[in-house]
Prior knowledge:
Chain A: Residues 76-253 form the RecA family profile domain. Chain A: One of its GO terms (biological process) is double-strand break repair via homologous recombination. The structure holds two protein chains of two kinds. Chain A is of the alpha/beta class. Chain A folds into two domains: 3-63, 5' to 3' exonuclease, C-terminal subdomain (DNA polymerase, domain 1, Orthogonal Bundle); 70-347, 3-Layer(aba) Sandwich (Rossmann fold). Chain A is built from 15 helices and 15 strands. Chain A has helices at residues 16-24, 30-35, 38-45, 49-63, 70-76, 85-90, 111-123, 146-156, 164-172, 182-190, 192-198, 209-216, 222-242, 283-289, 335-347, and strands at residues 68-69, 79-80, 95-96, 100-105, 134-139, 174-177, 201-207, 246-251, 253-255, 261-263, 278-280, 292-298, 303-309, 316-323, 326-332. Chain A starts with 15 loop residues before the first helix and ends with a helix. Chain B has two domains: 8-77, DNA polymerase, domain 1, CATH 1.10.150; 88-348, P-loop containing nucleotide triphosphate hydrolases (Rossmann fold), CATH 3.40.50.300. Chain B is 40% helix and 20% strand. Strand 10 (261-263) of chain A pairs parallel with strand 9 of chain B, so a sheet runs across the interface.
Amino acid sequence: MSASRRTLDRLPAVDQTLAAKLESRGCRTAEDALYRAPLDVVELADVSMHRARQFIISVAKAVAPTPTTALDALRRSQYVPLVIEDVDKALGGGLRVGAVTEVVGAAGAGKTQLCLAACASAAAPARVGGRDGGVIYVDAERKFSGARLAEIAREKFPGAFEDEESVHALARRVHVVTPTSLTDLNKRLDALEEAIIDHKVRLVIIDSIAHLARAEFGREKVVQRQSALGAVASTLKRHAEKHALAVLAVNQVTTKIGTFARHASDGGDDVADESSGITAALGTKWAHCVNTRIALEVLEDRRALKIVKSPLAPLTSFEYRVDASGIRVSGKSDAKDVRASEANVHSTIGK
Amino acid sequence: MDHAPGDWFQDSYALTSLALAPSTRSKLQRAGVHSARDVLRISGNSPSTLARECALTLDEANDALKAARFNGEGIALRGARSAAELLREERARWSVFTFCEALDDALGGGAASGEITELCGCPGIGKTQMAMQLSVSAQTPRAFGGLGGEAVYVDTEGSFTAERAMDMAEALAEHLGRCAKRCEDEDARREMEAALETCAPEAMLRGIHLFRCHEVTELLAALETLGEFIAERPKVRLVVIDSVAFHFRQDFQDMALRTTILSKMTNRLMSIATTQQVAVVTVNQVTVKPQRDGSARLVPALGESYAHACTTRVILSWENDERVAFVTKSPRLPQARARYAVTAGGIRDVRGSKRAAP
């Protein structure tokens, strides 16, 4: 249960007489107690300031997260590989467990292909280099294809999926759900823990978050949309960390409509680059929520996979094409190209 | 009556404005006490007298006396300072450096102790990188002119990446190794080499204490316990909150409540910064603010009243494919800008850059 909803009488080492007094006055949970100033507690429970302070500190101790050190975190860190050698290397091993990775791109760029590859890698048995776990595939756009998953798995892990039986074993581990709205998704995510434990889930894929957000909330409901998105991100991250799973979210692109991004300190006259008309959907708030962002760009004659936000990787760009194995990287492109498009993704606002 | 200058007016405060338990207050009122002055006069600095006169227990009387003095010490210890306090002052003020010289100059040395420095900027600009760099560089040994400290990293977004911190720690250790080799002075070099053994990259990571907070309640709880945590670990020099905005931007429907909690949190941070003499660094996000002419600007999130909470505000932004930091608010520094780069080894100067005129 989340810390905020824990009731005072269930917290260890908390002054129970005081807790009982507070409860009778409508202050029941740790959240209630911590939102109040010590003076409020003095008034509510008729005790001295000193005792009120002590009480608040003991509540805080009971619900505060236990500190770890960065070294522990380093030893715990894991990855779900995308099985695209160069990209995995750049990302430090693939999709980081405990974090949200986003893939953004135009229609037909290969976002779903990337998802299916990750799906195959998470569900493949450990002896061929997979992660041997379950996958929850949130397929909002109904684009999931079992046949394509089998094909990609066969290409990615040669020899491992030759017979029907092994393909079925792989496919049985992938659970496809099709929510119709962001609210529905949120409800399912809230109750995800049971499924995670039942099926040893290592990867959650949301294809696509933008489709759900756009379908439910129109342009006039941006505030509600942002708060629903924030809740999704928060829940995903909680599960991801608690149960050591990776999250891959797909985002769409949107066309900018005459909106220029300027930074508050820039002064009035300089306007962000407006050469490109396309930017990631869902705005800056969602962009703040994702830990790693991969952009798939389709230019006239070539396609580029770019790592545009990552706590680990520097800005990198790869040329790729879509083939039987999903996305195949054919070489690095030059760095200048990346910087320009990175500024695009981050400093312009989608509407 | 003996008083420190400046609080003479507090004497006339009514009993109802004192932080007293209602039962104590009503007993005092029944005994005919109306103001803080009455409490002080009746007691004559003796809790037992007050207890007898107003039918209070000794503890209640003691609390009442303290409240009437607004938690000031009695005459016995007035003006006394502990040796620990003096020692802390002797160490004076210091800063955690960012490793980007231009930015350190703009900040007057780095993130200063006893202050809140806020970093804000758009996604991917390097806020978390900067925060991680600070937690690593806070551990530079004293022999190298560093703080030899530890860091507390309160992570609300799950963006702390241990691998990246390891990269930075390795780069720092390597850099220090080079410094030690280059040092001319024999004694200083021996000291540096001894210090180097204690600051292996792994040891540095052990000196970063992570609090992962999944919601506002956990964040408040963590901040509430932080005072004690730091008191137990006197080497802590830096507290990072990455980010303050994340939970506050989604956990609240009631904006008035949000403002209250936010100011409660900033009060806690300020008191951690000043009483424990650590540098507090907060990370804030940006949000889109529509302008009258139909365009939009990116401004720091959490609103105008929150803008007063930090001592120094640094805005990180893109400018012609380069990262630039603007010092936009500070009580002691002029507005300034500095270019910086995020490299494999952490935050560094832009190669070949000169300090821009402020």
